[in-house]
Amino acid sequence: MKELFVKDLKKDMEIVDFFMVKSISVKTGSTGKPYLDVTLGDMTGEINGKKWDVGASDHLLKEKDIVKIIAVVTEFNSQLQLKIQRIRKAVPESNPDDVMDMKDFVKAAPEVPIAMYGYIMEVALNLKDEDLRRLCVKVLEDNREKLMYYPAASKNHHAELAGLLYHMKRMLMNGERVCEVYTNLNRDLVLAGVIMHDMQKIFEIDADTDGMASGYSFEGQLLGHIVMGVKYMDSLALELGFSQEKRIMMEHMILSHHYEPEYGSPKRPLFPEAEVLHYLDILDARMYDMEEALKITEPGGFSDRIWTLDNRRIYNPEK
Amino acid sequence: MKELFVKDLKKDMEIVDFFMVKSISVKTGSTGKPYLDVTLGDMTGEINGKKWDVGASDHLLKEKDIVKIIAVVTEFNSQLQLKIQRIRKAVPESNPDDVMDMKDFVKAAPEVPIAMYGYIMEVALNLKDEDLRRLCVKVLEDNREKLMYYPAASKNHHAELAGLLYHMKRMLMNGERVCEVYTNLNRDLVLAGVIMHDMQKIFEIDADTDGMASGYSFEGQLLGHIVMGVKYMDSLALELGFSQEKRIMMEHMILSHHYEPEYGSPKRPLFPEAEVLHYLDILDARMYDMEEALKITEPGGFSDRIWTLDNRRIYNPEK
Amino acid sequence: MKELFVKDLKKDMEIVDFFMVKSISVKTGSTGKPYLDVTLGDMTGEINGKKWDVGASDHLLKEKDIVKIIAVVTEFNSQLQLKIQRIRKAVPESNPDDVMDMKDFVKAAPEVPIAMYGYIMEVALNLKDEDLRRLCVKVLEDNREKLMYYPAASKNHHAELAGLLYHMKRMLMNGERVCEVYTNLNRDLVLAGVIMHDMQKIFEIDADTDGMASGYSFEGQLLGHIVMGVKYMDSLALELGFSQEKRIMMEHMILSHHYEPEYGSPKRPLFPEAEVLHYLDILDARMYDMEEALKITEPGGFSDRIWTLDNRRIYNPEK
Amino acid sequence: MKELFVKDLKKDMEIVDFFMVKSISVKTGSTGKPYLDVTLGDMTGEINGKKWDVGASDHLLKEKDIVKIIAVVTEFNSQLQLKIQRIRKAVPESNPDDVMDMKDFVKAAPEVPIAMYGYIMEVALNLKDEDLRRLCVKVLEDNREKLMYYPAASKNHHAELAGLLYHMKRMLMNGERVCEVYTNLNRDLVLAGVIMHDMQKIFEIDADTDGMASGYSFEGQLLGHIVMGVKYMDSLALELGFSQEKRIMMEHMILSHHYEPEYGSPKRPLFPEAEVLHYLDILDARMYDMEEALKITEPGGFSDRIWTLDNRRIYNPEK
Amino acid sequence: MKELFVKDLKKDMEIVDFFMVKSISVKTGSTGKPYLDVTLGDMTGEINGKKWDVGASDHLLKEKDIVKIIAVVTEFNSQLQLKIQRIRKAVPESNPDDVMDMKDFVKAAPEVPIAMYGYIMEVALNLKDEDLRRLCVKVLEDNREKLMYYPAASKNHHAELAGLLYHMKRMLMNGERVCEVYTNLNRDLVLAGVIMHDMQKIFEIDADTDGMASGYSFEGQLLGHIVMGVKYMDSLALELGFSQEKRIMMEHMILSHHYEPEYGSPKRPLFPEAEVLHYLDILDARMYDMEEALKITEPGGFSDRIWTLDNRRIYNPEK
Amino acid sequence: MKELFVKDLKKDMEIVDFFMVKSISVKTGSTGKPYLDVTLGDMTGEINGKKWDVGASDHLLKEKDIVKIIAVVTEFNSQLQLKIQRIRKAVPESNPDDVMDMKDFVKAAPEVPIAMYGYIMEVALNLKDEDLRRLCVKVLEDNREKLMYYPAASKNHHAELAGLLYHMKRMLMNGERVCEVYTNLNRDLVLAGVIMHDMQKIFEIDADTDGMASGYSFEGQLLGHIVMGVKYMDSLALELGFSQEKRIMMEHMILSHHYEPEYGSPKRPLFPEAEVLHYLDILDARMYDMEEALKITEPGGFSDRIWTLDNRRIYNPEK
Q1: Cβ-contact B272, A287 below 8 angstroms
Q2: Does F27 lie at the interface with D, CB-CB under 8 angstroms?
Q3: Cα-based angle C240, C242, C248 (whole degrees, multiple of 5)
Q4: For residue range F133-189, what is the model confidence (pLDDT) as tens digits?
Q5: With a cut of 70, which residues of chain C have pLDDT below it?
Q6: How close is the nearest chain D Cα to the Cα of E7, in Å?
Q7: Which chain E residue has its CA at the smallest distance from D312's CA?
Q8: Is the pLDDT of residue B116 over 70?
Q9: The predicted structure's pLDDT at residue B296
Q10: Number of DSSP helices (H) and strands (E) in chain D, helices first
């Protein structure tokens, strides 16, 4: 059983525990001698390690292997680093102590994917507008499998297992309230907009089933999820027989949800539901990033500068 | 009784009705002849009018008088304009037909001021943090009289009777939900921030008891309501014995709520509650401006360009 | 026969000639008297006129009527204006002198539409890549009718009859050369990009058969011709069986041809052919606007400030 | 006695001399062996050094210790570095050679603090406006102790012992002249503005008595010295019984002295004295940074890029 | 003798006095009747006037004529305007009352040109660097005649008779002080930079001997006074045998004195003397514009928005 | 004979071949031991190498030496690096195997300098305008020697032997076509503009005869090639007796060819020929940079981020 997590490591600790290999290679040191350079991780973070003499079996290790290590925590350039004495692959088949709960090794949204999916599907099923209801239900069903693990970003906010579902769910929760406060809003349009706005991230980002992104797809790089989303919406609207107005309004909501041209939206929101969609989106992203920053900041202290928050350093109150 | 409102006027209508004088002066025409130039209004908007021969009694009319007019609606430079044949002051004392409901003449928030005030006070009374509760209750009590009619702006969003209360109330409604969704938030801080953030608009803007602003105060122009709000918070925190941390965090929330330096916040929000405050504020302002724009836009059409919405033209769906 | 054109009018001229009504309405003067306010035009420009006493027949005039006027050229606010004494509709059926060549009244590209169309189709037919050839030929055929008259803009560059064809043709001429100079370019991609890049302006702009735009379509306002063009390309590529790479590259060329996010391209060009497409486009637009400006600028003088050229005043050499 | 200063070190020098420890730690090399990593400094600058075998006494060294070293100057990544053979703490109590003049080790303004303070107090005492005179005298007296050593910045311009006094004094010298040239200026307002504008840097920056800043205070980070200065001015004005106009004008001068919103001033200067204050401030900062840059630039050469001067490289003439 | 000045006119005054014709034309009113449209001015400002029946002699009036008028001050669009009853040219030859002091009619720097010139020449003659002394003396002598009346701008700051001399003189006064405060500065370079920096405004702007600019020269529009100044400096340096370093440093000072690329300086200042030159320049321009604004602002009030001051409204204290 | 080029090196290759020394120094390793740090290059690129034990003869090697090495290709920080076992200077005098073709070692334009020069001179000789013809011929003759090898930049586009000629030639090729398409252009002006626009790069950049820049000249840093080019044009125009208009138009073309103030042009193009010049320039620069990027990018992959292309990653199609 895993006992110690990356976020709890401190300088000079001597550790014997299991981690996942995030990246690994044999490098040549400044004196010409080879050494093993490996990044290890678990659900709480990542740490780099070095092993100064490379054994034959070390060459066989690869990304996503679960390994057991004996190491000391050192510090290099004010970052913690592992000086690894031994490393070996876990063999759960033959060694009961090596049987691991895989969830310990993967950063994941704090709620169960199927529950979040259920919440979102419930919202979809209760939309009053029949077109939008059919649209959302279909899209959720068609993409069910990938939604179960897809992150909402390759890094930054919601880059985690089922991060996209988590992002949608919390936006829906706020969106429902906003429609109660601003009663002139078309509730169905707001909620369908939330469900559709980032759906093509599934095809913009390349990710595997543990929710880790490895980069962007070819179409993602040349067009981006916003324009891909407009095209997707267009073909669905044709298929489902939307009116022209409803089709174009949904496409516009997707197109404008980043708000500023320099963030990828060539049109700014031109009706209140599109405006609301943007603010639900940005608020959720900011809350996520701030929560993450504060998780690793001492009470009464400031976080490091956070790039996605315009390099702000976030304050964690003493309480 | 008033029958016809500004928003319902159409070209070529012949009208006999009551309006409030918003501004009035005798001007000299291009041929050197004097004429009466008057802006009339009611709770739905304003319209300019001309009277081509000026009578002796016309010179006695002044701002805020309720007047009865006989006029024809014409068009000049694609704007409606009244060609006034007769105008006289209403005399409710002597003429029962001239007795008016003053609410018809003043743009006002759609809810009753005392009810909104009650809602907000209720929130304040239920804050768990004793310091913040005492702060909010005191501030609401101290400014009770002015809150009953103060607008939240001299023009643009919430420039109407009790607009500031309406702005606070709707922000609180959303704020409560946001604290349920993002459970790490300090609810008291968010809600106290909402109550305090614009309170000094009462001293930044010069307004009269019908909620109409006539301009900015001297201190408003040289310092602005944000910095005035920080000073106000500072003296209240000293008086109420806040801890340094609580005092400075509240001041920071006021200081940062416009988010961008170019909009008046020299510091960006540095903790999640300050971040949320900004988004509650901007969302409410945008919803207000869009609602106003759509009130006078035909279904299936676009509004005029709206300066406070970056010159966007807002779309009103056909339904 | 029309003898005098708008661009040749000078102050104090007394004129008797034919013009097209561009807009017309009866307005009320500052003294309350009605007058006729009419904008007249021909292929060289437009001029405003006033008729101070309105006759019964004046009410029957409407946009696009050809009218004969008797008038004096005056100046108002440093702009020429017509003081119209008489105005009547042309009756070519009954009056031989009223038979006009409609080309005199409509601003048009300087080349014959069918010839320009032929040039472009020739380019399309000679593309070596079979997919791109079929694409371009099909698109040119499908949109043949509208291309014969569509402008390339609602105002600014190429806002004229067949302006879109003219824009495409001159870009192709330069594009062919650029591919000779930079031999690594994929010539078919560049030329197909030119043909496709603005094709959806036909659906973004509302224009009539004399090439005059009356505004933007609903989809044009909410999505814009760039995103519409990507969707159009997508459906054509599916229909014609393009490879994924070729489809996405063509979509990217359309998406990125305005280059800067603030001009509507969420992605900048990511390969040389897309880069070239942008420069062919902008160069042609700039040359058009400068030529237009210099047409009405005296040798040795500067034009007025031109909005589409960043408010520059363009110099016309003395020669 | 200290003989050699950091700015005079050259590659390959063998040195035996005294320096102050600026930071020190024991690190682990790439081969796993510990070494001593120490930054040494004196009034002319700082240099990093390494000692490859760590002795027991090395662990006892700490920041601000004066140490004697034997070392060779080497070069690493085009920066000078010390290869330290021996290092020991100075013991002035027992070793006469170890008695040092502490001024050699601390970067300081080029004038004596008490003399600069005297100059500024003299200006304050001669203000004609009684309110402003009492304000400035009180503020100078109340903050006398800290002014003797406080820097004007944590890094960049005037980050040195008594740098704040030096900044104020030179601004006052120029300010007096400017008031002679622009005779409409209110001289008292300009000079009081100079004295007050940065006073809260004393509480924004955390610094010790040798003028070295260790960072920003909590209030400094959340509010900044400008807003803190406005609050400070406000309470002083109340205490001293200023008129509303005088109070607000002084607060505005502090608020606007950074001029641009993005540099921390939510309001731009709104009267000439506030405008002048800004230019006195920026000129003094720029002159300071350029002088510093040229001190370490060869005649006929360019300095490195200087971040506070928009990355310019400053030229030092050959003379 | 002139008794009433433009800045003292108030609504409803009846006036009989002399003014200078700034522009004049016969226009056609909205009813088709001609009227005289004339702008009149004196050293304190300008005002527009209308004369509703045009006499034969009115056609003979032209720019710069001194005229005597009988008129009433009216208000149109919240601007004062003259309703002129009679207007005639002054005939000082035959009518002693018509003999005017021309200084009353021309906006001029507040000091005598020859005295300012003398001050500047004195500075030039006392430069220690022989090259710079010869340069400045020569340039002042060569341009003596035009300097006596040239404005420093076509509008905005120092657009007045001898405004360029006034600008140079006040910059020199401050410059001398700055060199005393920052003793590392090369005083000769700073002062010669002041004298040379705007000298080519004499050829960039077209102005007549009363200091009124009529526009920009051809070279002024295509190159601008900064680049023209660099060329001028270059030829003078060659003629006077400057070293390469001195020549290029002087050219750089001229080139960089507007500081920001968007204000015309392709290079930012790269040594302290060039930096100082910029701040002397901008400070003098700002002080001038603020003084002008406050001359026509009531104590306790704000000026109109001033374009050259980023649309700020400047406050005039109550005193 | 050289067999292996930098661009073809792969990890783990063992190589024995010739390279040019680009930079060389003896450094001290982290353990205090000296090693040889050398950058080697050829016409296809550069690579860093280390030699861990330094021999006596190694100290004699210097920049531009041709050396023969025995080495292994390793990887350090994801960059290839040579681990050099032996290195010696080539001695072509005594060793026939050491005779090298120098072209293998220098990055150069893909066409023969004299042929490009001939093309450009041909264009110059065929200009119809006698002044411009004499200008261009003279300038080409006067700078013939340097043009044969000068790069067009110190890094970025056309930083290679005869890069300036190559840049001019390709711009001329496109320029000729553009003048055929836009027939109102003054062809002589466009082509003379191309020839003159960057000519002063010869004096802005310090480069040696193999086309490698070592930095910028003093005048280059303080004025830049644009302003230097205007001065150069000015003196030539005086010498050749140009009309004022022609002189200033040519100077303006040089001045405005970077288009944006922030890229060094204080004036934007004010006539079509200047506008065209800019687009010919930028298109050629962009094509060059993209070609270079794609040379080292796999088909179907993206290049690294390229600074001169706004950090875009360029796509190389699969074909």
Answers
A1: yes
A2: yes
A3: 125
A4: 999 999 999 999 999 999 998 776 677 889 999 999 999 999 999 999 999 999 999
A5: 29-32, 77-78, 156-157
A6: 19
A7: E270
A8: yes
A9: 82
A10: 10, 9
Which amino acid is located at C239 in the chain? E
Residue B186 backbone dihedrals phi, psi, to 5 degrees = -85, 100
Alpha carbons F255 and F264: distance in angstroms, whole number: 8
DSSP sequence for F75-99: EETTEEEEEEEEEEE--TTT-GGG-
Query: In this complex, do A222 and F30 lie within 8 Å of one another by their Cβ atoms?
Result: no
What predicted TM-score, i.e. pTM, was given to this entire model?
Answer: 0.90
Rounded CA separation B86/B99 (Å): 19
**Residue of E251, E281, E287 to mutate for D, most D C-beta atoms under 10 A:** E287
SS3 A37: strand
Measured N-to-C along each axis, helices B187-197 and B163-181 cross at an angle, to the nearest 10 degrees, of 160
Residue F319 has pLDDT above 80, yes or no: no
CB-based contact (8 Å) between B228 and chain D?
A: no
Distances (CA, A) of D33 to D55, D69, D171: 13, 22, 53
Taking a C-beta distance cutoff of 8 angstroms, is the pair B16, B22 a contact? no
Contacts D222 to A, Cβ<8 Å: 315
Backbone angles phi, psi at B291, to 5 degrees: -55, -45
C-interface mutation test, from F116, F167, F283, F297, most C Cβ less than 10 A away:
F283
**Smallest Cβ distance to E266: which of F226, F251, F270?**
F226
Average pLDDT rounded to a whole number, residues D273-299: 94
Q: Is the ipTM of this complex over 0.95?
A: no
Q: Is A167 on the interface with B (CB under 8 A)?
A: no
Amino acid at E131: D
Contact A287 B268 (CB under 8 A): no
Q: What is the pLDDT of residue D32?
A: 63
Tokens representing B275? 């971040």
CA distance F168 to chain E (A): 24
- Crossing angle, helix D244-256 and helix D187-197, to 10 degrees? 50
Residues A271, A276: Cα–Cα separation, whole Å: 9
Instruction: To the nearest 10°, report the CA torsion of E6, E10, E16, E17.
Output: -10
Q: Give me the torsion for CA of B286, B288, B292, B293, rounded to 10°.
A: 10
Strand ranges (E), C213-278: 213-216
Angstroms from E275 CA to nearest CA on chain F:
13
- Torsion of Cα atoms, F51 then F54 then F56 then F60, to 10°: 50
Q: E2-49: per-residue pLDDT in tens? A: 889 998 898 889 999 999 998 888 877 666 677 898 989 888 888 899
| Cβ separation D271–E290 shorter than 8 A | yes
Closest residue on chain C to B31 (Cα): C31
User: Distance of alpha carbon B49 from its chain centroid, rounded?
Assistant: 24
SS3 content of chain A, % helix, strand, coil (to 5): 45, 25, 30
CA distance D123 to D274: 18
Contact F97, F3 (CB under 8 A): no
CB-CB under 8 Å, A76 with D28? yes
CB contact under 8 A, F272 and C287: yes
For residue A55 the two structure tokens come to: 């054994």
User: What is the rounded distance in angstroms from the CA atom of residue F152 to the CA atom of residue F162?
Assistant: 8
**H helices present in chain B, as ranges:** 113-125, 130-142, 144-147, 163-181, 187-197, 201-204, 218-222, 224-240, 244-256, 272-295
Q: Which chains border E (3 or more CB–CB pairs < 8 Å)?
A: B, C, D, F
Rounded CA separation B264/B224 (Å): 8
Chain-chain contact of A252 with C223 (C-beta, under 8 angstroms): yes
Q: Name E17's bridge partners.
A: E69
